[in-house]
């Protein structure tokens, strides 16, 4: 079929059909162009995110030097996915990005004629940059900035001022810093600057909230106590949660525990006496004994004379005896030193919410509350798990509450399957669009452009002469054969030809 034939066939169409054809052609061209653009699109992936303005400028400059295409969306920098890891290694070898300001690499280049003031200023800048990089290594910190103020030294001791520092941190979404981590930042900064005390370091977040305390040393024990109490509450909650979910089902129970912990440490000394029990403390015994014999006169010259000694001679005897005993008794006594432990649980308060059961009727979930007997059983289980003690004021409350409103959560397996299907559809949808375009647009359009087949009507010559259908299907042009037959018939029998024409006109 020639081009002129196609154009003549299109001109014979009505206006509505021509407009419809033009719309189909334009839509097909747009769809093909979209598919080609999508197939040739570069797959961009994140190279770096949350870069500081200085680091982002250095990275972009380097990408322009390497002639690597890039895109900037918010705080993220995108490059072709096939070059992500190669670029990271190449930039890291050149010290890019620096990760929060200028560090001690500022002294890598030797500068001539630098004054002492500039050197001191560069040292403070380098110290601020290094501290910023270190603080940003914390998992909760997205970005940080450190400001250090070092007063000038003076010879007057009474006028000497100590250096101070301020730290601003921007936390990642949903993250918080514990008091221990804040104290670590404070001591990190104070230990890095000569003469700085932890009391002179201030830490705030990007919303202006003060995170550090005026006296970190005094509040460190309080922070540890708070963290310990939270850890105890969390431990009770996790144990009760896992236990109840094993009974009522996953996600069907909510447990909250509040503990009162006594952190005071008491040292007590007790001394007890038992009057019924006595013991000998000391015992002392003394015994004296003496006896006498013959005695003489009065000492002197007279008593020594023989007449006097004979007169004094005669029988004489004397004796004496003395005995004493001393015993000391003492009442029995016991001394004990009692040291009460720190962190003793004084009371426990437990609140448990349990979901009911659901019955599906007509594509709706009907809530069915749990029986009172079941709730009492759950309460007894919780009491046994926490070591319930009524005398110290423990409380346990178990209530039945509807958690959901007929919407069922998809299990993890189905969610993973849907993700795989969506990733496959990313490639199957364009392929299906091309197939549909070929079979339902291009092919019908080609069939429409073809001229309609003309039904062949037997010619008068074929009727009169009786040319058979086998002869009409020869490869010779039927039109030429028909002309020759008509001319031959007119020449041989003009009357018959005229009669045939009159019959045709009469019909």
List the helices and strands and how they pair.
Elements: H1 3-11, H2 15-39, E1 44-49, H3 53-66, E2 71-73, E3 76-80, H4 84-93, H5 116-135, E4 141-149, E5 164-171, H6 179-192, E6 201-205, H7 216-248, E7 253-262, E8 267-292, H8 306-312, E9 318-339, E10 344-354, E11 357-361, E12 364-368, H9 372-386, E13 395-400, H10 412-449, H11 460-465, H12 469-472, H13 478-492, H14 494-506
Parallel strand pairs: 5-6, 10-13
Antiparallel strand pairs: 1-3, 2-3, 4-5, 7-10, 8-9, 11-12
Helix pairs in contact: 2-10, 6-7, 13-14
Features:
single chain; alpha+beta; 13 strands; three-stranded antiparallel sheet; 507 residues
Low-confidence stretches: 463-475
Q: Helix segment count? A: 14
How much strand? Answer: 15-25%
Number of strands: 13
Radius of gyration: 57 Å
Shape: elongated
Proportion in helices: 40-55%
Structural class, from secondary structure content? alpha+beta
State the distance separating the first and last CA atoms: 36 Å
Order of helices and strands: HHEHEEHHEEHEHEEHEEEEHEHHHHH
Order of strands across the biggest sheet? 1-3-2
Mean pLDDT score, rounded? 76
The main sheet comes to: 3 strands, antiparallel
Could you give a short description of this structure?
The chain has 507 residues and is α+β, with helices and mostly antiparallel strands. Helix content is 44%, strand content 24%. The longest helix is centred in the last third of the chain and has 38 residues, at 412-449.
